[in-house]
Amino acid sequence: MKRMLLSFMVAATTLAGSASLAAAQTLEAIQSRGKVLIAVDTSVPPYGMLDANMQPEGYDVDMAKLIAKDLGVKLELVPVTGPNRIAFLESKRADIVISTFGVTPERAKTVNFTIPYGANQIWLFGDKGQPAASAADLSGKSVAVVRGSIQDNTVTRVLPQDTVIRRYEDDATAATALLSGQVSFIATGTLIGDKIVKRDEKKYERKLLLGLSPYSIGIRKGDMEFLHMMNTFIYTYRLSGQLDEMSKKWIGAGLENLQSF
Fold this sequence. Notes:
With 261 residues, the protein is of the alpha/beta class. It has 9 helices and 11 strands. This is ABC transporter substrate-binding protein.
């Protein structure tokens, strides 16, 4: 019995030591190279995009600059896309991911998430002639979402069971499905949805607010101390009003109702 208990204690100590070592290695690697590698998708304005001089800018870029400043190192932005950002994190090609990363149970299996640093509203968009005053109106109707996204989780939870949810690999494909008439509605953030409306304001409109989609910074599994450090940074940015100012600058709205966990 004593041997079993001793073995358990050794295993627990080893696991705890491994987690601490992983965190220490992340911060140590950042400090030794003198720069932090932050993955950002520059194809998702106004969160990440290129200005007239082909320099990155946007909400996520400003967030990355704040973190690099408080870490006391230089910033290197690592270009990523939605599908490959986790792979870049796991392979250590990036130290953290700041890319409007929505928190989902599936993603949480491979990534540790910080407390949210921003949020996007999830709306149902569609043809003005299609009724959608409440979730019940979506019974039997088709709705496009990005597979595995927070929108996917939201519509699955709040819309009627007989709603036809069509899942696509990215925002562009989901939007194309609506524009080509393959689906009646799309559930997405205001950034994508409002662009659809602007394409044809006589045809499309915001239909129904489904919820909020907070986004967090992605950290490698095992980096608990580094995760705590990033949470502390975000907390101070929220208290100081910096995140609220950034949101008003890039998104056009403050973060008064920003959720946390």
